[in-house]
Design a protein that fits this description.
CATH architecture of the largest domain in chain B: 3-Layer(aba) Sandwich
Distance between the termini of chain A: 10 Å
Keywords (chain A): Cell membrane, Membrane, Transmembrane, Transmembrane helix, Transport
CATH topology of chain A: MetI-like fold
Number of helices of chain B: 16
Number of helices of chain A: 13
Radius of gyration of chain A: 24 Å
Oligomer: heterodimer
GO molecular function, one term (chain A): dipeptide transmembrane transporter activity
Strand content of chain A: under 5%
CATH class of the largest domain in chain B: Alpha Beta
Distance between the termini of chain B: 33 Å
Largest interface: A-B, 39 and 42 residues
CATH superfamily of the largest domain in chain B: Periplasmic binding protein-like II
Organism (chain A): Prosthecodimorpha hirschii
Pfam families (chain A): BPD_transp_1, BPD_transp_1_N
Order of helices and strands of chain A: HHHHHHHHHHHHH
Number of domains of chain A: 1
Shape of chain B: globular
Strand content of chain B: 15-25%
Radius of gyration of chain B: 26 Å
CATH topology of the largest domain in chain B: D-Maltodextrin-Binding Protein, domain 2
Helix content of chain B: 25-40%
Structural class of chain A: mainly alpha
Family (chain A): Belongs to the binding-protein-dependent transport system permease family.
Chain lengths: 308, 523
């Protein structure tokens, strides 16, 4: 298992380098730059050049990337050009909010998605299965921006159960978690149901039936372990989806977090902050995938063998 | 009940009472979309400041909605007849939030700080500052500047504590902001909120407030809510007590709320359509004029903005003297004139209603930046242009991208955009040839306009002269159809009457500390 872990880590290195290059290039290729936001309208070209030189933006892009990457590898993401604070400090101040939202949403998606998917598989073909899966399909199609406003209207405005926005109390987390989580529920439930149905058709299950085991016993004792394998993989991939979804949700709910920081900084083309946020989000996706793969390998020796 | 027990119970009750009653003095305001993400509270170097800035800093001079000037940190002022010296008597007894005194030495330090910053223009004509005595300063000018009082009243002229400013360097305005205003900055989290606490020493409010200080509100949390719908719902449910800006879309619903009061104050903004004068077919003044006369200001004002604010027929906000141009220069909807001009220019109506000339259709680019209001407006403008024979293709950019695109100079033709400014020198910013691309989106480069620009910007010695010069410059720009005026929004804000009581008349050009000083918290 340790060997597998080391091999997976080594495989992440080129992925990290490619991701960091893409992050850097995307930010710099978008029209506009932070200098636009530092100058009053009508400022002279000389003044623009002076500021570009001050922040090293006049250097070739490759040089800028190399310097940024070198510093990033030592944990230094630079100083925000517009926000004038170390990027690491800005990220650390916002990360707890994003983690609270992301992890809660992941937990919610997993618990509800696996339960609903498994129940739909248990009653596969019944009206319950059809209604639940149709509902889930609809849920997966709702844009999180729209869903967030709908949640606010129902639970905050009409029922008065939760705050409309912000992060000043624990209950302000409920609606954002539901908004991010519902999209996750749809995918996880679909994958869970499909996995259960597929495993239920395998020969060993027929054998278990032939041996006289009850349907319930087969389902909970034998199917679960096999069926949850693809779900674990999906959960790993879902980390990225949830982090991405949180960007919109943080905006709608006016919550602090990496998403809000990213949007604020992107609007001002504050390159170091945007790069730092995207790098963190990218690493979140990589980490999620790694954890998913490791969990799968731990559950299934065949996965480890394929890598050896 | 034993005595110690009673004492404990009474103390607890008193404490509970204090805890329960404390929030009555604390309110939450919200700033929305355009102001969200303002990176600092450093008025000297900032290019953007949010509404909370006026609560932290005082200025030497204040401007009222009628454009008149009022004493603030300067108790009085006068200038020599040649305009080469201005003498300001400073208000006594003023202290910064850090306890440092406000006096003539502060002004002597403050004015040179603008050199090399983006706001250097505001005091560019001040040669030097002389300290006459502890509470008197004299500005020696390089040239007369009739606009000096306007500049001193701008939000970028909030005066920071020299001690705090020098100590914090680049971090000033981010980690701390120290002024003399009615509120002290307790905490600032960019993009999220600013917490302000009352300055109990404040007793130097201006004559634009009834209450000269301290403020009646003890603590203000200014939240930043980027999504307009969320901000509106926060006000509706009592999550925030005041919205600094209310999108016109929400006004009917807010007006229907019994516990919400919507107020409008004269606007500081003009929505307009710059026309790229160097991009064919708009190199032809007749085509430019046709596009300008195709815009139905009145129908936009009524249907899109519910009759709030005013139609715009010039480039300047209507409260400025320079906006009162000869009516023959004002641009108003005239579709027949528009069609006639296009006919004269050789653009004939095709079978689909779109005009063509020499086999080329009258296909033009129409840009705007993202934001619900502009998205809807640009669609209306597109249909109005189509009614006279233009086929306009809409492209929507984010704010940073669109400015970068303008700077390319060759990509754009028409755009829907707005500016917010309360001085006629905005014409220089948007139409001076040296600023072609951005902000001179019209790429307007005309010898006569340049001559009028120089006269207005540098040769005006008195305020009246300046008004006359800028009015002539304004009229000439209008006559060249470098843009089409569309709409003059009102400043609309709303507050919860359950929590706040504001004066009926709002003084100043915006909702600023003058009004907040008079605000009372309802229990």
């Amino acid at each position: 298992m340790l060997g597998y872990f080391v091999r997976r880590l080594i495989m992440l290195l080129p992925v990290f380098l490619a991701m960091s290059a893409i992050v850097f290039l995307i930010v710099h290729l978008v029209p506009g730059d932070p200098i636009d936001h530092m100058l009053q309208i009508g400022a002279s070209a000389e003044r623009r050049q002076e500021l570009a030189a001050k922040f090293g933006l006049d250097r070739p892009l490759v040089v800028q990337y190399a310097l940024w990457l070198k510093a990033a590898l030592t944990g230094d993401l630079g100083e925000a050009i517009i926000l004038k604070q170390p990027v690491v400090d800005l990220i650390l101040a916002n990360l707890p909010y994003s983690l609270a939202l992301g992890l809660s949403a992941l937990l919610f998606s997993t618990v509800v998605g696996v339960s609903v998917g498994a129940a739909a598989a248990y009653f596969a073909g019944s009206w319950f299965d059809r209604v639940v899966m149709a509902g889930i399909l609809m849920g997966s199609m709702l844009p999180s921006f729209w869903l967030g406003l709908l949640m606010i209207l129902i639970f905050a405005v009409e029922l008065g159960l939760f705050p409309v926005s912000g992060a000043r109390s624990w209950d302000a987390l409920v609606l954002p978690v539901l908004t991010v989580g519902i999209g996750g529920v749809a995918l996880i439930a679909r994958v869970t149901r499909a996995a259960f149905v597929e495993v239920a058709q395998q020969d060993f299950v027929t054998l278990l039936h032939a041996k006289g085991l009850t349907r319930r016993r087969i389902f909970f004792r034998h199917l679960v372990r096999h069926a949850l394998m693809p779900v674990v993989t999906i959960l790993g991939l879902k980390v990225g989806w949830i982090l991405g979804g949180a960007v919109t949700v943080e905006y709608v709910f006016a919550r602090p977090g990496l998403g809000s920081l990213l949007i604020t900084s992107l609007g001002q083309r504050d390159y170091p902050v945007v790069q730092g946020c995207l790098l963190m989000l990218g690493m979140g996706v990589m980490l999620g995938t790694l954890v998913g793969d490791l969990a799968q390998a731990a559950m299934d020796p065949r996965v480890r063998d394929r890598m050896s | 009940m034993t005595l110690p027990f009673r004492v404990t119970v009474l103390s607890a009750a008193a404490l509970l009472g204090a805890v329960v009653s404390a929030p009555a003095q604390e309110v939450t305001f919200a700033i929305t979309a355009r102001e969200v993400g303002t990176p600092s509270y450093n008025p000297i170097t900032a290019t953007r400041l949010n509404s909370a800035n006026s609560l932290i800093y005082d200025r030497l001079v204040l401007q009222d909605a009628d454009q008149s000037f009022h004493p603030s940190l300067a108790a009085s002022w006068d200038q020599t007849p040649d305009g080469m010296q201005w003498t300001f008597k400073l208000r006594p007894g003023v202290k910064f939030h850090d306890g440092e005194p406000f006096n003539a030495k502060v002004i002597e330090w403050w004015v040179p700080k603008f050199a090399g910053t983006e706001n250097a223009d505001t005091v560019a004509k001040v040669d030097r500052v002389e300290v006459v005595d502890d509470l008197t300063v004299r500005f020696h000018m390089k040239a007369p500047d009739p606009n000096l009082l306007f500049n001193l009243a701008s939000s970028f002229m909030g005066i920071p504590s020299p001690k705090a400013y020098e100590a914090l360097g680049d971090k000033y305005g981010v980690t701390a902001a120290v002024g003399t205003g009615p509120f002290k900055m307790e905490k600032f989290t960019v993009g999220q909120q600013t917490v302000l606490v009352r300055n109990d020493d404040f007793t130097w409010g201006s004559d634009l407030s009834v209450n000269r200080g301290p403020a009646k509100i003890k603590k203000i949390t200014v939240r930043e809510i980027p999504e307009d719908s969320t901000a509106f719902l926060e006000l509706q449910t009592g999550g925030v007590d005041l919205l600094y800006t209310v999108p016109v879309d929400f006004m009917p619903r807010l007006k229907a709320e019994k516990s919400v009061k919507v107020m409008t104050i004269p606007g500081t903004e003009i929505v307009y359509m710059p026309i790229n004068t160097q991009s064919a077919p708009f190199t032809d003044i007749k085509v430019r004029a046709a596009a300008a006369y195709a815009i139905d200001q009145k129908s936009i004002w009524q249907s899109l903005y519910g009759g709030v604010g005013n139609t715009a027929n010039g480039f300047l906000i209507s409260s400025l003297q320079e906006a009162k141009v000869d009516p023959k220069f004002a641009i108003s909807y005239d579709p027949e004139r528009s069609k006639k001009l296009l006919d004269e220019a050789g653009w004939k109506v095709g079978p689909d209603g779109i005009r063509a000339k020499d086999g080329a259709r009258l296909q033009v680019k129409l840009w705007t930046s993202n934001g619900t209001e502009f998205k809807r407006l640009v669609e209306v403008v597109q249909s109005q242009l189509k009614a006279v024979g233009f086929a306009a293709d809409i492209t929507i950019f984010d704010a940073s991208t669109i400015n970068a695109q303008y700077k390319k100079k060759t990509e754009h033709q028409l755009a829907v955009r707005s500016y917010s400014w309360t001085n006629a020198d905005i014409i220089d910013w948007f139409f001076a040839a040296r600023r072609a691309g951005y902000p001179n989106v019209s790429l307007f480069d005309d010898p006569k306009a340049e001559e009028l620009n120089v006269t207005a910007m540098t040769k005006s010695r008195t305020w009246d002269e300046r008004v006359a010069n800028f009015k002539a410059y304004h009229e000439y720009i209008l006559s060249q159809y470098a843009f089409a005026p569309i709409y003059e929004p009102a400043n609309v804000f709303a507050y919860s009457t359950r929590r706040l009581k504001l004066p009926e008349t709002i003084r100043g050009t915006r909702l600023t500390s003058q009004t907040i000083l008079d605000a009372q918290v309802s229990n």
